[in-house]
Write a structure and sequence with these properties.
The structure holds 2 protein chains of 2 kinds.
Chain A (H helix, E strand, L loop, with lengths): L3 E10 L4 E10 L2 E4 L9 E4 L4 E4 L1 E6 L12 H11 L1 E6 L10 H14 L3 E4 L15 H6 L15 H14 L2 E4 L4 H4 L4 E2 L2 H6 L3 E2 L2 H17 L2 E4 L8 H9 L4 E6 H5 L21 H13 L4 E3 L7 H4 L16 H10 L5 H15 L15 E11 L18 E11 L2 E5 L2
Parallel strand pairs in A: 1-4, 1-5, 6-7, 7-8, 9-12, 10-11, 12-13, 13-14
Antiparallel strand pairs in A: 1-2, 2-3, 5-15, 15-16, 16-17
Chain B lengths: L15 H19 L12 E6 L5 H12 L3 E5 L12 H9 L5 E6 L4 H6 L5 E7 L5 H15 L6 E5 L6 H12 L3 E5 L15 E3 L2 H5 L4 E4 L15 H8 L3 H4 L7 E3 L12 H4 L7 H35 L1
Parallel strand pairs in B: 1-2, 1-3, 3-4, 5-6, 5-8, 6-7, 8-9
The chains are: A alpha/beta, B alpha/beta.
């Protein structure tokens, strides 16, 4: 492959928390250097001062394979990811047929590798069938490439089952991803308890349920010593518990979804089901607290929680409609809203989008350091556009940002030094 | 004309003037309904479909009577037993109905927001006859008319709403309507039956009934909706009646001339003592039923006027 020399780029370095005009030399699919002369054979690309950052590592993407390929295939998810600047998808196991056996994991790994222009790595279920009763073959699944274990939004209600799975996972050095939510309080909820839910007559859950779920999981982490990641922290109430656990030295990280950073409960308006996500959108106070936690680094990871749903599962009364929103292609422009609003800077944003998820899930990438794979996104942070959901490359178009004014377009995405989207 | 809405989906979007326009017109229909000759022709030539996804006798009968008295062709579809069981979605049902060109669609559905969803998919005027625990606007309008006739005004009254507020669309619509018209609203019930952050609606919340009823002009009892209970909101029916059932003793705390209301159907001995319900000096429960027909006539009349005006404009547009 011809070496590439990307010059005149605004480099976003999430490790040094710095940014500035510079250049990157790519050779053999890896970042070979961040300066110096152009080798003779290299193709020089002038980035025109646009931002060049480590490609996004999206931790927690649902793809419809196996079972719901009409909602999203590895091909369509990969194309959407490339268009959104996502260079690694960390896929969720909460598919129609859960990824809970080494055989299923091998199948999806093969399918993903054939079909997707970006890297796809897989999480596996923590319990068989995600039923919360018996742990899966964690060891075999790790050998088959599972990067973490989770039952997704189905909370393992039985603490004895979870404690044992965590203890066993600790022995393997595996990462367990939890969904912090008290399952009893949150059963059947479609909105966050508060004035809005009361006005609209929607079944709701107190934000306290998130803290209760987190506190329980953290106690089990302290007991078992497992490596733990909370998939989505979305409320102010849960943050002190997270801070305490980190201060106590537990091996704990937390993520949040872009939808909880960019939207609040009022966006549901007149029962718009594209705004139904799990956990439900929160109050503005919670949203602001969550954004601040991302800026401070208390929340480590921002992901899309990409959840494709077909039109039929959304064209229902709000409480009956399926939860979830697509996000691969809107993750970056929606996150840039926070940058434009002055809530955080670009290096800190990419710390949460690229560096931290790569580190936490043990993946290469997320950095501009020499030797790292040349997984990069080149984007114009200011370019304005109005989103039309039918232009999204996902098979499902259930985005809450339809018709929204956004700023920030991906100009090119590189995976392993190959241009998989756009023209730099 | 003051009332400009295309649909009646809830009290929330209505301005006070629109509410009063409905009530004023309803007064005229009260008079009409008391005559032997009850025929009007405001809805002549129009088709009204009552679509109830949830069982209802009283509300459906009231809407049917209201439509027939004004000359509409009325059809009842009890969807609870039909195609929904075969897996048809709400939207498909709506589109099927829309193809039959109804003019007025009266809908009740167990899910909050379902009537809003349906209204987006059809071309006729839609009336919410109760959606989940969201709103039941005609009930609030008929309650308002009943109060205004009994008290001579509809402002600066102290109105106590008692019972299962959390699961009640009647309570939500009444809180919104009576609040818009500047009344003092008190909610009384066990905390398990209060919605979250309800005090943000500008109401006072009491869990002691005698305290909540003190000085009230209107006592509005709600049905304890046993069919909606997941179980465990209150310890037992008898304890509920003891603490929150309306009897003569508790009613003494209210003003001497306080009226007692209930949207029906009543659970005598659970939320209301039979002798209070039947006390013609206090109870206006039968009057509420009467006002129900008149209010629904007024609502459908106003919506039909707007519908005809809109179609007239569209036709004129096509010509031009």
């Amino acid at each position: 492959m011809t070496p590439l020399h990307l010059v005149n780029a605004r480099l976003i370095d999430p490790e040094g928390l710095a940014e500035g005009i510079g250049e990157i030399l790519i050779d053999d699919g890896r970042i070979a250097g961040v300066g110096g002369a152009t080798p003779k054979a290299a193709r020089v690309i002038d980035c025109g001062g646009l931002c060049l950052a480590p490609g996004i590592v999206d931790a927690g993407v649902k793809v419809g394979e196996p079972g719901e390929r009409h909602k999203e295939s590895f091909r369509s998810a990969g194309l959407a990811a490339a268009a959104g600047g996502v260079t690694t998808i960390v896929a969720r196991p909460d598919t129609a047929q859960p990824i809970d056996s080494p055989e299923t994991l091998e199948f999806v790994t093969r399918r993903a590798a054939e079909a997707s222009p970006v890297r796809i790595r897989h999480m596996a279920a923590l319990t068989r069938g995600r039923e919360g009763r018996e742990m899966t073959e964690l060891g075999f699944l790790m050998d088959a490439g599972a990067v973490a274990f989770t039952d997704g939004d189905r909370v393992v209600a039985d603490t004895r089952v979870l404690a044992r799975a965590m203890t066993y996972a600790r022995g393997l050095g595996a990462l367990v991803v939890g969904h912090p939510q008290d399952p009893g309080l949150s059963a059947g909820a479609a909105a966050t308890a508060g004035k809005f839910a009361s006005l609209k007559g929607l079944p709701s859950v107190s934000p306290m349920a998130e803290r209760m779920g987190l506190e329980r999981d953290l106690a089990l982490v302290e007991m078992t010593g497992v490596r733990y990641h909370a998939d989505q922290i979305t409320t102010a109430l849960a943050l002190p518990a997270l801070a305490r656990a980190k201060a106590a030295g537990l091996d704990v990280t937390a993520g949040t979804s872009i939808h909880h950073l960019a939207l609040n409960e009022f966006d549901v308006g007149d029962y718009r089901t594209f705004f139904k996500v799990k956990p439900p959108l929160r109050s503005e106070d919670d949203r602001v607290a969550t954004v601040e936690a991302v800026a401070s680094g208390l929340i480590d990871i921002v992901c899309s929680m990409h959840t494709p749903q077909d039109e039929e599962s959304k064209r229902l009364p709000f409480e009956e409609a399926a939860a979830g929103a697509v996000g691969l292609q809107t993750l970056l422009p929606a996150a840039l809203r926070l940058v434009h609003a002055g809530a955080l800077d670009l290096p800190r944003l990419f710390r949460a989008l690229s560096l931290n998820p790569a580190r936490r899930f043990g993946l290469p990438g997320g950095t501009l350091a020499p030797g790292a794979p040349a997984d990069l996104v080149l984007f114009d942070p200011d370019a304005p556009f109005v989103l039309d959901r039918f232009t999204l490359l996902s098979k499902s178009k259930n985005t809450p940002f339809d018709g929204a004014r956004m700023q920030g377009r991906v100009r090119a995405t590189l995976v392993g030094g190959r241009i998989v989207h756009g023209e730099p | 004309m003051t009332f400009r809405a295309k649909h009646l989906l809830g009290i929330e979007p209505l301005a006070p003037a629109e509410i009063l326009a409905v009530l004023d017109l309803a007064e005229r229909y009260v008079a009409l309904n008391r005559r032997t000759e009850k025929r009007g022709d405001a809805l002549a030539g129009l088709t009204q479909i009552n679509m109830f996804f949830e069982a209802s006798t009283r509300t459906q009968a009231s809407f049917e009577l209201a439509g027939k008295r004004l000359g509409a062709d009325v059809m009842n579809m009890s969807v609870a037993q039909s195609s929904v069981k075969k897996g048809e979605t709400l939207i498909d049902t709506a589109l099927t109905l829309n193809a039959m060109h109804p003019d007025l669609l009266v809908v009740r559905h167990p899910a909050s927001g379902a009537v809003d969803l349906l209204a987006q998919k059809v071309e006729c005027a839609v009336i919410n006859a109760g959606d989940g625990r969201h709103e039941h606007p005609t009930q609030a309008l008929l309650d308002a008319l009943t109060i205004r006739r009994a008290k001579g005004r509809l402002q600066r009254l102290t109105i106590a709403i008692c019972g299962d507020i959390a699961h009640s669309r009647v309570a939500r619509s009444n809180i919104l309507l009576l609040g818009k018209l500047e009344n003092r609203i008190r909610l009384i019930g066990p905390p398990t039956l209060m919605p979250a952050r309800i005090a943000d609606f500008g109401v006072e919340v009491f869990d002691d009934m005698a305290e909540g009823l003190r000085g009230a002009d209107v006592v509005m009892m709600l049905r304890l909706q046993r069919e909606r209970m997941d179980g465990g909101f209150v310890p037992s029916e008898r304890e509920y009646f003891h603490r929150y059932g309306l009897d003569a003793e508790k009613l003494k705390a209210a003003k001497e001339d306080a009226i007692v209301m209930h949207p029906g159907p009543m659970n005598r001995g659970v939320e209301i003592d039979g002798t209070i319900a039947d006390d013609i000096n206090r109870s206006v429960i039968q009057e509420q039923v009467e006002m129900g027909v008149a209010v629904r006539m007024a609502v459908m009349d106003l919506l039909a006027r707007n519908l005809r005006a809109e179609r007239g404009r569209q036709a004129a547009g096509v010509m031009a």
